[in-house]
Amino acid sequence: MRPLPKFLWFLLVLFAFVNALEALRYLLPHVPFPAQLDNFTQRRIALSLHALGGAIALLAGPLQFVPRFRESSWNRHRLLGWIYCGAVLLGWCASLWIAPHSQTGWIASAGFLALGAAWIVTTTLAVRFILRGDAPSHRRWMIRSFALTAAAITLRMYLPLVFVFHWPFSTAYPAIAWLCWLPNALAAEVYLRFVPTPSHTTLPGTNVQSGSVSQTLWRDQCP
């Protein structure tokens, strides 16, 4: 990794770790400093499951993008990939219960439901491509998927600004429900547009490249 990408990656890991810990507090019997949400008081199980899925996805994602980590153990990459996908599925399923009841009404709910739909679609496509043996497309869709996972980070970066600048919460929160993920999705597309994706990926420990690997071999070895 070059110095700037390495610094940005460490910054991402730091934010992901802090946000994951913040989310995981909802699994405790007595939640410290809970957000005063109807979803917490009335739908706590769904909120806790969503927090658990999002936290695991946040923690599992960054390591998958480090070439040295990814290529040193294909089995570890595969296992962590399945953990990430399972966490996304859990987080998305739970969001279907809580997103329709978001604060401030239907605009915020629509933003979070759209985020959930994009989240599960990008992750599903990433899995579909790797099962077909198309590693470059798998990588591109996983970048898109994790950009949406990181909406949990950008959401918590925006919320304090509401209070710092004294914006009306009823106006700001619906906007944040969309702004927490649309710029992330756009940033992923810009990155994919200007940073070329390798056309072949060599399986660790082999001289075989993804372009020539059969579908059966990839189904056995990859997430």
Name the beta content range: under 5%
Total domain count? 1
SSE arrangement, N to C: HHHHHHHHHHH
Q: How many angstroms separate the termini?
A: 24 Å
The whole-number mean of residue pLDDT values reads: 86
Number of helices: 11
Our Rg estimate from Cα atoms comes to 18 Å
| Secondary structural class | mainly alpha
Low-confidence stretches: 202-223
Helix content: over 70%
> How many β-strands, per DSSP?
0
For the biggest sheet, the summary is: none
Q: Estimate the global geometry from the Cα principal axes.
A: globular
Keywords, separated by commas or semicolons:
mainly alpha, 223 residues, single chain, disordered C terminus, 11 helices
